[in-house]
Amino acid sequence: MERTFIAIKPDGVQRGLISEIISRFECKGYKLVAIKILVPSKEFAQKHYHNLKERPFFNGLCEFLSSGPVMAMVWEGEGVIKYGRKLIGATDPQKSEPGTIRGDLAVVVERNIIHGSDGPETAKDEINLWFKPDDLVSYTSNSENWIYGNN
Ligand code: GTP
Ligand code: MG
Description:
Blueprint: E1 3-8, H1 10-14, H2 18-28, E2 31-38, H3 42-48, H4 58-65, E3 70-76, H5 80-88, H6 101-105, E4 114-116, H7 120-130, H8 144-148
Antiparallel strand pairs: 1-3, 1-4, 2-3
Helix pairs in contact: 3-4
């Protein structure tokens, strides 16, 4: 089953939005298969956002991501990479729709509270960067038949 990497950034953690954000993924029907809280180093943040290193905001972005605890997670479910990004909303909260996480809970692009992988390759790379294979738990949830059906 498809997996994606989701991180609650330091602003989301500090603002007490962990449970609200987890709830949106959980209520949708996705399954949490790995989770940890850590303060990433700036070098680690630079690795995570390596594809943005030419952008003018790269340094500030990496300083911000390493400025406090980040809640790193792997979520599993059909279409979770693409639909997870829909739940998150547009990069700039000024443009995110109401009903999305950023639309409902954030105001500016520099403090948009959550990260989600943007495609299958990125998801694989980011899961490998943030987690060891043993950190990921494979299990069947009791509600799976009710989410996906069984025929
Ligand atoms: P992530 O899930 O965090 O990767 O966001 P995203 O995929 O929606 O956007 P992208 O990967 O292009 O940018 C990564 C992060 O850089 C964003 O979440 C923003 O915090 C920040 N960012 C993106 N564009 C801008 C910008 O134009 N200005 C500033 N200051 N920050 C930006
Ligand atoms: Mg991105």
